[in-house]
Amino acid sequence: MCNLYRIKSSNDEIARLFDVENSAGNAAEEVYPGYPGLVVAEGQLRSMVWGFPLVLKSKKTGQPLKPKPVNNARTDKLDSFMWRYSFEERRCLIPLTAWAEAEGPRGAMTRTWMSLPDQPVFAVAGIWRTSEEWGDCYSMVMTDAAGGAAEVHNRMPVILRAEERDVWQNAAASEARQLCQPYSGDIEIERTSESWRRSRA
Length: 201
Prior knowledge:
By secondary structure, this protein is mainly beta. The protein has a single domain, classed as SOS response associated peptidase-like (hypothetical protein yedk fold), CATH 3.90.1680. The chain has 4 helices and 16 strands. The strands form 3 sheets. Strands 2, 4, 5, 8, 9, 12, 13, 14 and 15 form a 9-stranded mixed sheet that branches.
């Protein structure tokens, strides 16, 4: 599942590319769960926290723990309580340049980046909601991996082609669900020596 992605374009460039108003604050080039990222929602480029907050309780004390960001929503779980209303009512686009998965032996995993060779910025499917803990937050919709991406991980983001972006955001949930398919185009894979656990920005 995706726990790291990057976006190399500026906010203004992304807003122009998606033909929306730029209402976003600052977001880092590399985005991690629980940190701000950029999304296109309701006709605007906005900054939201990546991950829906999941509040767990301590087994020892019964007191609430720090919320855990649930940053991936599996397509086969979109009807569950956690995701259902956001999928039906609040779908968004997540602009990115590449996403990463960890590869290698435990304790020495490195970053493998995946991108689209013909698109410096592309959109993947997301859903969002407002939370008490973090304000507006979003999760990335994941499906079965295909092609080269399947060599790295068994799941990948739902990649949306330009003509599918409006459908994802505005069509009925039944129509949007039909877009939750493995990407059939080319995926560029870049295996690196970068440590997976490199310090966050």
